[in-house]
Amino acid sequence: MSLNAPVAPLSFVRPVKATLSVAIFSLMLGLVGCNKAETPEQNADATTAGAETEAADTAPANSEHVVTAYSSHHEQSVKPLLDKFTEETGIKVELVTDKSGPLMARLKAEGKNTPADLLMTVDAGNLWQAADQGLLQPVSSSILDANVPAKYRDPEGHWTGLSLRARTIFYDPSKVSADQLSTYADLADPKWKGKLCLRTSKSVYNQSLVASMIEHLGEEKTEQVIRGWVANLATDVFSDDTNMLKAIAAGQCEVGLSNSYYYGRIVAKEPNFPVKIFWANQDTTGTHVNVSGAGVTAYSDNPEDALKVIEFLSSDKAQGLYASANKEYPVKQGIDESDLLKSWGKFRQDDIGVQKFGALQTKAIQLMDKAGYK
Ligand code: FE
Fold first, then answer.
1. DSSP character for 58?
2. Would you call 241 helix, strand, or coil by DSSP?
3. Which of 9, 33, 115, 331 would suit a FRET pair with 105, their CA atoms being 20 to 30 Å apart?
4. Are 260 and 333 in contact (CB under 8 A)?
5. Looking at residue 34, what is its pLDDT?
């Protein structure tokens, strides 16, 4: 049921239409393009939802009211919402799902011939990379301005956060009490020697967390912390957060870092899962939060409808569902969280603008490498 999405052949594209509509829309919005290398992402399983569709070459832009979305979210978590959008607006959405890295590589390879109007992916680090590679176009929307706090959006409008995830500390309550825990940096203390489990530094989630630490603590102190983490590892780094959490449950380690929704997914199935959540840095900078989000592609031939999809996903109606389908937090203030999330208690979030994670990503990767974090 899952296929790797092939790169669209370049022969059946709409160069004139795409160029024209982009040119017109760019005049309205001021298209910014830049360039850079790509980034890996390792979150969602690669599932491809059907073949991409092509608008007829002769049709003027927007006449068919179809938006093609490239998404790194699981199809089952995002499709019901897109269906709801179609129901309300009559605008169809063709969904193509794959991991973030391949989707961005594909967008880059397709260039102005891409069928994609929308990129939906996780982590501000990835969204920033997509914008930096010139794959997204800036939009301005009073709806997004009202619904999404500025710290969760690109200041230039290339992408918008649509749900929130916290990356925080998890622990084995049979061996650790909450009052022994405090900050990310404290996990570098020798008292945790042989007790810490971590996911690989190749995860964009860890790159973003370390980027936030560089912003708060400076490079030198952050490097010391990473060296301390590495010295405290109970075992080799994990390829994903779920296995790291299971290692805590299995007694292999006592503390670790994970995104909140991976824990939520396990606990939803296994309410007695013997691991607890601890909100990091509550007395200092607040717990690290990141976004999943979306942006209109640079060469979309239907940017107006693509923006409507993003606006819809930021609305009251969609926010609760969009976030809870993935065990995430709504990005819009005042939306009710699910009972599961409420049971974890309120926490203070780090106030840092998430676009910083992208800007400091290269530095974070270099620093982790230097500190011996695999
Ligand atoms: Fe993830």
1. T
2. helix
3. 331
4. no
5. 31
Query: What was the pLDDT predicted at 236?
Result: 98
Q: So what's the pLDDT on residue 65?
A: 86
Distance of CA 318 to the CA centre of its chain: 17
Between the CA of 93 and the centroid of ligand 1 the distance, in Å, is 23
Closest residue by Cα to residue 309 from 119, 137, 165: 119
Q: From ligand 1's centre to the CA of 40, what distance in Å?
A: 13
CA of 320 to the centre of ligand 1 (A): 18
pTM for this one? 0.82
pLDDT along the chain (374 residues), means of 10: 37 35 37 31 32 34 78 92 96 97 97 97 96 98 98 97 97 98 98 98 97 98 98 98 98 98 96 98 98 98 98 94 86 91 96 96 98 98
Ligand 1 centroid – CA 215 distance (Å): 23
Report the separation in Å between the CA atom of 43 and the middle of ligand 1, taken as the mean of its atom positions. 4
Q: Separation of 202 CA from ligand 1 center, angstroms?
A: 13
Question: 344 CA distance to ligand 1 centroid (A)?
Answer: 19
Ligand 1 centroid distance, CA of 83 (Å): 23
Between strands 288-296 and 118-122, the pairing is antiparallel
Between CA 354 and CA 101 the distance in angstroms is 19
> Cα(258) to centroid of ligand 1, in Å?
9
Give the per-residue pLDDT at 283: 98
H helix runs in the chain, sequence order? 15-29, 75-89, 100-110, 124-132, 142-147, 204-217, 219-232, 241-249, 260-269, 303-313, 316-325, 339-343, 355-359, 361-370
Cα 140 to averaged position of ligand 1 atoms, centre (Å)? 28
Burial (Cβ within 10 Å: 0-12, 13-18, ≥19) of residue 289? buried
Terminal-to-terminal C-alpha distance of the chain: 33
Report CA(21)–ligand 1 centroid distance (Å).
34
DSSP codes of every residue in 135-200: -B-----HHHHHHS-GGGB-TTSS-EEEEEEEEEEEE-TTT--GGG---TGGGGSGGGTTTEE-B-
Q: Is 252 left (phi over 0), alpha (psi -120 to 50) or beta?
A: alpha
Gap from CA of 44 to ligand 1 centroid (Å): 6
Q: Give the span between the Cα atoms of 357 and 341, in whole angstroms.
A: 25
